[in-house]
Specification:
It is a single chain. The chain has 83 residues and is mainly α. It contains 4 helices and no strands. Helix 1 runs antiparallel to helix 2 and helix 2 runs antiparallel to helix 4. It starts with a helix and ends with a helix.
Length: 83
């Protein structure tokens, strides 16, 4: 939860600076990095110890997944809600 609060604050400030208005679509994509750490979501934390995962295992699987989400999500969001 703390990650989301930090990312939302940073991204809202960045979108206001770059576009001169709030861009909630960009904030939604940027704040959805729950795949990258074991503390990003409760499920990640719950399975970490029983499965024997290490912190780096989340980056190994989460980073490609996050890149895929951004590559698919940003064009779809911009298509649905154009400037």
């Amino acid at each position: 939860m703390q990650q989301v609060i930090i990312f939302v604050t940073l991204l809202l400030t960045l979108t206001l600076f770059l576009w001169g208005r709030w861009r909630y679509d960009i904030v939604a994509v940027g704040a959805s990095c729950a795949f990258l750490t074991p503390i990003g979501h409760q499920s990640n934390t719950l399975v970490m110890e029983p499965a024997g995962y290490k912190f780096g295992d989340y980056w190994r699987m989460g980073l490609p997944l996050e890149v895929l989400i951004v590559l698919a999500g940003v064009p779809l969001i911009l298509w649905r809600w154009p400037f």
